[in-house]
Design goal:
alpha/beta; EC 3.5.1.-; GlcNAc_PI_deacetylase-related; two-stranded antiparallel sheet; single chain; hydrolase; LmbE-like_dom_sf; 7 helices; zinc
């Protein structure tokens, strides 16, 4: 089946991720396309990524990574970034996490909810063997999908004070291998690289490769397709 463009009959999107920098590994290139077209895109981060920097204590890493994420979001035109402040590394799929996410969906009232790939393993194009996906990514992704329905249900989390929201039209899950829907990001690759490069302290700890070079490599890997185009892929579901 031929790949189809992502629908654009929506006004507000909420991009949900587990950690600072998750969105920048590909999705931010699509976000830059959307904001350039006048869409309202917001970020929701479950954690502050405080357990993600080797040798840096969580009380130091958390504020640093939050600030890097806010700068990174601003590069692609996102000004509203919310952190739930849940503990990094131990997200658990279940009603507690669903409740937090349902409340956030009610607050932001998106028509499109976007999240990262949350399968057990993932294989970027041209890479072997597969990587084991983060436990936080796996837990969060399933709860994001479920929370869309929870946000519109008056009885599941009856104690939530935010007004119910049933306006989500689409749920988009990042798909790097065989996506049925794509966003052409050929015009926003440089912006995506700059956005990822804002996670400077984090990337410096990952590798001795210069930050901008690391960022370029990541964006190349996540946006290049077999036909040489620049696209970010999603698997789309009805909200």
């Amino acid at each position: 089946m031929p790949t189809r463009p992502m629908p654009d009959d929506w006004e507000r999107a909420l991009v949900v991720a587990a950690h600072p920098d998750d969105i920048e590994y590909g999705i931010a290139a699509a976000v830059a396309v959307w904001t350039a077209a006048g869409k309202d895109v917001r970020y929701l981060l479950a954690t502050r990524g405080e357990a993600g920097m080797a040798g840096v204590a969580p009380d130091v890493a958390g504020p640093l990574r939050e600030e890097e994420e806010r700068r990174s979001a601003a590069v692609v035109g996102v000004t509203e970034v919310e952190f739930l402040g849940l503990r990094d590394g131990v997200l658990v799929e279940g009603p507690d996490l669903r409740r937090e996410l349902a409340a956030a969906i009610r607050r932001h009232q998106p028509q499109l909810v976007v999240t990262g790939y949350f399968g057990a393993t993932w294989t970027p194009p041209g890479v072997s063997p597969a990587y084991v996906n983060s436990a936080d990514h796996r837990a969060l992704g399933q709860c994001v999908v479920d929370a869309v329905a929870d946000a519109g249900n008056e009885w599941i989390f009856a104690d939530l004070t935010e007004p119910r929201w049933s306006g989500v039209q689409y749920i988009a899950v990042q798909e790097m291998t065989d996506p049925p829907h794509e966003v052409d990001v050929s015009a926003t690759v440089e912006t995506a690289v700059a956005s990822l490069a804002e996670h400077r302290r984090y990337l410096e700890l990952l590798s001795d490769v210069p930050v901008e070079e690391q960022a370029q490599q990541v964006i190349d890997m996540s946006t290049m397709t077999e036909d040489g185009g620049r696209r970010v892929g999603f698997r789309l579901y009805w909200g």
